[in-house]
Design brief:
Blueprint: E1 4-7, E2 10-12, E3 18-24, E4 33-39, E5 46-51, E6 57-59, E7 67-72, E8 77-82, E9 91-99, E10 104-107, E11 111-115
Parallel strand pairs: 2-11
Antiparallel strand pairs: 1-3, 3-8, 4-5, 4-9, 5-6, 7-8, 9-10, 9-11
Length: 117
């Protein structure tokens, strides 16, 4: 069983930055797609960004140019650098690891990000 542990959330002012980290209990991100999702109150969970095993990335339109996803296989960690934060980025952010080949999908417990003055 793989465990994903997120960290780095918190309260930040509009225009500020945060970096989220997701550390896995095993060396999985070299063979699993790593992703960040978020869920705001009263809304469905939505994809924020993903990084594939070959390093290719994709982003939600709402965060393109502001957020960057990256991966450190040596540390079993996926990061989400969030810049120019807006109030609408406020949500619980969840880390995800997925392998369609293996049919496995894991979620972290979530970390709260609040953007407010």
């Amino acid at each position: 069983q793989v465990q994903l542990v997120e960290s780095g959330g918190g309260l930040v002012q509009p225009g500020g930055s945060l970096r989220l980290s997701c550390t896995a209990s095993g060396s999985i991100f070299s063979i699993y797609t790593g992703g960040w999702y978020r869920q705001a109150p009263g809304k469905q969970r939505e994809l924020v960004a993903r990084i594939f095993t070959d390093g290719w990335t994709n982003y939600a339109d709402s965060v393109k140019g502001r957020f960057t996803i990256s991966r450190d296989d040596g540390k079993n960690t996926v990061y989400l650098q969030m810049n120019s934060l807006k109030s609408e980025d406020t949500a619980v952010y969840y880390c995800n690891a997925e392998s369609l080949l293996l049919g496995m999908n894991y979620w972290g417990q979530g970390t709260q990000v609040t953007v407010s003055s």
